[in-house]
Amino acid sequence: MNHRPITEDDLHAFVDRVLEPERRAEVASYLEAHSDVAERVASYASQRDLLRGALAPIADEPLPPQLNLSRIIGNRRQRVAPAWWAVAALLLVSIGGLGGWVVRGALQTSGAGLTALAQEAAYTYGVYAPDRVRPVEIRATDSAQLVQWISNRLHQPVKVPDLTASGYRLMGGRLVATSHGPAVMFMYDDDQGARLVMLTRPMLTDQSAPMAPHSDDGVSGFAWADDGLGYSLVGQAAPDSLKPIANEARRQMRIL
Amino acid sequence: MNDMLLLIEPLIPALRRYARALVRNSATADDLVQDCLERAVSRWHQRREGDPRPWLFTILHNLAVSQFRQSAARGPHVALDAADERHVRQDAVQESKLMYQDVLDRLARLPEDQRAVLLLVAVEDLSYAEAAKVLGIPLGTVMSRLSRARERLQQELEGGANGAQKGPVQLRSVK
Predict the structure, then answer these.
(1) Are A27 and A82 members of one domain?
(2) Residue A237 forms beta bridges with which residues?
(3) 0.90 exceeded by the pTM?
(4) Residues A147, A148, A150, A156, CA torsion sign
């Protein structure tokens, strides 16, 4: 009997059935001689069986539509192929340049986080959504130009969500100056002329934040942040109908 | 694209299982898995050659961890109706179901890092080295956490019925 000593790691590997046959046999004969350890090992093995049994049904459940991988791949393809036009960029403040507009209210808001972004989005909506003459600087029909313009200043790729499935068409976009730096506004409308605005900018704080609702003066919206970019989708529609649109936008933004 | 489908798709049930056992809420868990799949699809080219399982579990685990951080920042949200849960358990007549529910309840009381190791190793059959990679910790830490997790779970299980009453954390939506 000149065996290597049995270690705790061996015992776990025994339970998890990952030992080489030879070592397994050594552990087994050790356990035969040590009933207290054998009891403990047996209890670990029964835990393992219980856990596997208890959790197995989850893996047998039919997958919900949201986890349909073909669809996830398909969605991505659809967007990636025709859509370098959809890659937009953010830029540093250029006051007065190309219709940039200082969101005055934002200067008073404290913090640079999601709350500030939400407020900037609401102000932006308040200024541009009622504008019937020139709500956007560059129209969706010139989207290549829109992208090029923004891309020239790009430090971080941003995409334009495609909200047609929710009934909203892209009208176009413009740059907006906020007290936290440049932001890009995209505007959408539906067949009734109802408008939505999505404001996107880099985040200093709240670089990743779960979606949160906000409302201000009849304008409601949902703001979130992923990977250093903040988004706020605002409109006058009811929060219930805005939320799925915001979810869809977030989903699309996460795929790049 | 096709190999991506063939390699990832069979792993989705296990990803769901891990996510749900870890975050203990089926809707949140599926959202995490969806997020994981979207990221996996877009970063497919970044993965290393070989079995994509550890890579997918790594993405999922990291998402779950940021989810934990966010909900911790928002304050505890697992204000579950313990009374209701207990009814459900009593109504579930099968003994094995009761035992299963029990082990999941006990598992839920383990610290999140111990729970993760135990699930990856004992349920998802990842090797110790793969679990170390997924969790971003050294192999030795995997072993010591695994050891602590099993010991703790055993104490919980032996705690018997008394434990069931005092525990503030109950599983939900895990059957």
Answers:
(1) no
(2) none
(3) no
(4) positive
Judged by CB atoms closer than 8 Å, whether chains meet at B123 and A51 is answered as yes
Task: Name the B residues in 47-66 with CB < 8 Å from any A CB.
Answer: 66
Size of chain A in residues: 256
Q: Structurally, how many domains does chain A consist of? A: 2
Q: Is the minimum CB–CB distance between B1 and chain A shorter than 8 Å?
A: yes
d(CA B140, CA B138): 5
Q: Would you say residue A2 lies in a domain?
A: no
- Tell the burial category of B119 from Cβ atoms under 10 Å away from its Cβ (0-12, 13-18, 19+): buried
Q: State whether A46 and A153 are in the same domain.
A: no
Note whether A54 contacts B146, CB cutoff 8 Å: no
A40 and A100 belong to one structural domain: no
CB of A178 closer than 8 Å to CB of A120: yes
Phi, psi of A11 (to 5 degrees): -65, -45
Per-position pLDDT tens, chain B of length 175: 578 888 899 999 999 999 999 988 889 899 999 999 999 988 888 787 778 999 999 999 999 988 777 776 654 444 333 334 444 444 544 677 788 888 999 999 999 999 999 999 999 999 999 999 999 999 999 999 999 999 999 999 988 644 444 444 444 454 4
- What domain range includes position A13? 8-60
Residues A42 and A111 in one domain: no
What is the ipTM, given to two decimal places? Answer: 0.81
The CATH number of the domain holding residue A245 is 3.30.200.100
Measured CA distances, A239 to A218, A234, A244, A245 (Å): 11, 9, 9, 10
Write the CB contacts of A205 (distance below 8 Å, at least 6 apart in sequence): A111, A112, A113
Q: Are A227 and A233 in contact (CB under 8 A)?
A: no
In a domain, A206, yes or no: yes
A53 Cα to chain B: minimum distance (Å): 7
Of all residues in chain A, the one with the smallest CA distance to B30 is A67
> Residues B22, B110: contact at Cβ < 8 Å?
no
C-alpha Rg value of chain A to the nearest Å? 28
